[in-house]
Amino acid sequence: MTTNGPVSSGDLFVFYGLLKQGASGMPAHIDLEAAGTFGSPCWLRGVLYDLGGFPGVVAGEGLCQGIRYRMTDTSIIAALDEFEDVVPGDPARSLYERRKVALLDAGGAGTGEEAWIYWYIQPVTGFEQITDGNWPLERGWTRK
Q1: What structural domains does the chain harbor?
Q2: pTM, whole model, 2 decimals?
Q3: Which of 18, 28, 59, 130 is 20 to 30 A away from residue 141, measured at CA?
Q4: Per-residue pLDDT for 7 more than 50?
């Protein structure tokens, strides 16, 4: 599994929360529209939690829904990592790590694609599980 590794132009991401196109809480200082292209819905294995106004995906057998995004301008990676509280080499201070996952279709079958995702790496005890695996666009608030 690749974590927090180099991102290349053309790499896929899956955004499932505040970075989804049109999401409440999307960071205004990161121009995702200029740095890539949003695509179609996609799914991945995991469990989605509401962490108090922003979501996190952790390991599990559920299906979580996100949006494909094809990165063309990798100069925004540092800003994305900072927004997601990724501290390379220091998981104790990080909320997320950027890792590659297999993408799935709505039925859970593999698509043959891999995408970067911001994977939550802190405990989820006491947080609400989003049972349908889909973070509502209007649910979030700005973290930073």
Answers
A1: 12-129 (3.10.490.10)
A2: 0.92
A3: 59
A4: yes
